[in-house]
Predict the structure.
Amino acid sequence: MDKIKLAAKTRMERGKKTNKGRKEGLIPAVIYGRNVEPESLWINNLDFIRLLKKSGESVIIDLNVDGKSDHNVLIHEMQKNPVDGKYAHIDFFQVKMNEKIETEVELIFIGESEAVKALGGVLVKNMDKLEISCLPANLPSHIDVDISKLKTFEDHIAIKDIQLPEKVEVKVDLETVVALVTPPRSEEELSGLSEKVEEDVTKVEGVVKPEAPAEEAKK
């Protein structure tokens, strides 16, 4: 397994005192795990963004703290500032390479569906992540879902139809539907939908449907 490396520095600042570090391009973080003493860290914002773009969220990271100690970690949670969208905090979970982990892995939809391309259907994705269990060394960065199997509106892809990497177990029902294609709406359905929306709007408080002029009403 190719390890993804990321550098970290010990963080002493807490609460509002972390604002100075954020302005300097650092992200407050914490590392914890079973029988692991929590440790507060600083992560370089640009290094973290590059890691996500290159490897994604579901990857074992070799986290080096202060150039001394290395930790095998997973990204457990990422918080973003709702105003500027920048990363506000990261939680890392330290794993043991000889113990199985349970985590979610991103589903990547590949290929082209005949039901979408030729029949004008709409692709419906019922999930974008899959809960799995495996040893850290076998953790995939993502799992592909080939939608070329969706040739008609009767077809669907269940978890049992996905080709999983070796030594990876799924933690949900194998019959769970991952993706399907629904037929396009007919003109009658679209017309009925427009009428329903118009009717609902007139029921909203403060919205009054304009009445026809008196002359037109007599016709």
Observations:
- The two ends are 80 Å apart (CA to CA).
- The chain is about 20% helix and 40% strand.
